[in-house]
Amino acid sequence: MNDNVEKEFNVGGNIETALSGQYELKAGNIIREAWQLTRKNFWSFSPTIVVLIILQIAIFMVALKMQLGDPSVLFSLLDGSADSSKIESIVQSVMIANFSYEIISAPLYAGVCLMAMSHATGFKTRTNHIFKGLHFTVPVMLVTLMGLVLQGLAGAILPFLSLYFSMAFSNSVFLVCEKRMTPMRSLLLSLRAINKKLLPVVAVYALILVMFFVAALFYGIGFILVLPFFFHVKGIIYRDMFGIKMKIINSGGNGTPPSNNNKQSQVFDA
């Protein structure tokens, strides 16, 4: 006999309020909460970030090797021995490899986003939850591909437009995974919702850009803090904009409240 009792509820906003802008979104509150979540989940979340980076680098190097044959030719750019035609070929190869790794690693990136979203609702995660994004491999890769193409086209017109679309589409992966939306609809809804709260979102992402720059100055060591912070910001903004549907399973049955251990295992189930 199954004594599990399921209870569903919504945390944060919803689609209607996201598109109307009838809710509060303050940059200061987002930054403070993201920092608190980063500190609270640092030791459990940071290994996942490291795994993501390693896998992304591996995918990039494989894609680059397929383009160049021998990635060591990149050093010819540094010593100035490459002629103009060779430089152009190398740059194109790097851009294609970069594009390829973003598409291929998109499901893993989605898994990290879902983990940050779980933190924003008070639940714990484990490193292997990075693979939850694989449940949505095709739509996540499609929405990433569409977003990158639109960003590239916009950037060809005006460089800063690429940054704008990158920010405007920042909720699309969440919408595909958590709301089960189609890639095109998720891009459109993310764009419309971000435009309703453009100023606070721009302020937060401007700070993140500065943090990325500072982290790079310290040989990339600072990314161990900046990247978890970045993902938590994304999770908080999504929660406050669109809301997150949660399901609590009381395994005790008969109204018996779940134990702390049960609660810790109740993470968003992609």
UniProtKB/TrEMBL annotation:
Top-level division of the source organism's lineage: Bacteria
Transmembrane annotation, as ranges: 42-64, 99-118, 130-150, 156-177, 198-231
Keywords for this protein: Membrane, Transmembrane, Transmembrane helix
The protein's name in its UniProt record: Proline and glycine rich transmembrane protein gene in bax
